[in-house]
């Protein structure tokens, strides 16, 4: 990608060529589909919007010195996704399906995998949301699982150097007996206020 300055990438979103999707209906997952659209057609009563049925993962692919692309800890991410799904009553995606879709997403977007020793990587974001329309508080019957990728720079621009941190004890990110052990969006929403206050105080 001659238009990308790999050394100056932030940890942000850049459009790539394809995302990969699978749909859970009638008790089974569909075969993966490659999609070029960046958007979802979502019912206004979807459980993901009202009851927080949303889980996600984050992993990376790197280009080695030999030119080969490798994905870091793919199976462990698949297993953690399953754990999160169990925690908030979502349909579990088989590990093999997760690995197949991650591999397909990387292959379909291989031109966006940064060069070896560039300091950048291809970030892989698996996402599952409840999509069936309902107003009662209960698990969805339909789900969408998708994977998109984007080239990114380091999460912390400072790299492996000391960085100033602060603990704000007047906030809880997650309740000990709640969803704190699962990778769900609500835990991240709960961290936004404290995170902004920390930034205002000069902490990273």
Compact overview of the structure:
This protein is of the alpha+beta class and 204 residues long. Helices cover 23% and strands 21% of the residues.
Q: How would you describe this protein?
A:
23% of the residues lie in helices and 21% in strands. It is built from five helices and eight strands, in the order βββαβββααββαα. The chain has helices spanning 47-50, 74-87, 95-108, 185-189, 192-200, and strands at 19-25, 28-29, 33-35, 54-56, 59-63, 69-71, 121-130, 143-152. Strands 1, 2, 3, 4, 5, 6, 7 and 8 form an eight-stranded antiparallel sheet that branches. α2 crosses α3 (95-108). The longest helix has 14 residues, at 74-87. The protein is globular and about 50 Å long. The model has no long low-confidence stretch (mean pLDDT 94).
Give descriptors for this structure.
single chain, alpha+beta
Low-confidence parts, pLDDT < 50 over ≥5 residues?
none
Distance between the termini: 31 Å
Helix fraction bin = 10-25%
**Biggest β-sheet: count, sense, barrel?**
8 strands, antiparallel
Total helical elements: 5
**H/E series:** EEEHEEEHHEEHH
Query: How many β-strand runs?
Result: 8
Morphology: globular
Mind sketching the topology for me?
Layout: E1 19-25, E2 28-29, E3 33-35, H1 47-50, E4 54-56, E5 59-63, E6 69-71, H2 74-87, H3 95-108, E7 121-130, E8 143-152, H4 185-189, H5 192-200
Antiparallel strand pairs: 1-2, 1-3, 1-8, 4-7, 5-6, 5-7, 7-8
């Amino acid at each position: 990608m001659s238009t990308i300055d790999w050394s100056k990438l932030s940890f942000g979103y850049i459009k790539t060529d394809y995302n990969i999707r699978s749909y859970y209906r009638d008790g089974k997952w569909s075969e993966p589909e490659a999609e070029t659209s960046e958007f979802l057609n979502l019912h206004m009563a979807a459980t993901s919007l009202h009851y927080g049925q949303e889980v996600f993962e984050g992993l990376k692919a790197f280009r080695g010195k030999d030119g080969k692309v490798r994905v870091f800890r793919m199976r462990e991410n698949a297993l953690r996704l399953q754990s999160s799904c169990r925690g908030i009553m979502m349909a579990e995606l088989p590990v093999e399906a997760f690995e197949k879709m991650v591999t397909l997403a990387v292959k379909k977007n291989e031109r966006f995998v940064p060069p070896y020793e560039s300091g950048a990587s291809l970030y892989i974001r698996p996402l599952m949301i409840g999509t069936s329309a309902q107003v009662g508080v209960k698990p969805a019957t339909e789900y969408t699982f998708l994977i998109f990728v984007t080239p990114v720079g380091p999460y912390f621009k400072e790299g492996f150097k000391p960085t100033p941190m602060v603990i704000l004890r007047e906030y809880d990110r997650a309740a000990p007996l709640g969803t704190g052990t699962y990778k769900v969006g609500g835990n991240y929403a709960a961290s936004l206020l404290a995170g902004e206050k920390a930034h205002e105080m000069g902490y990273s």
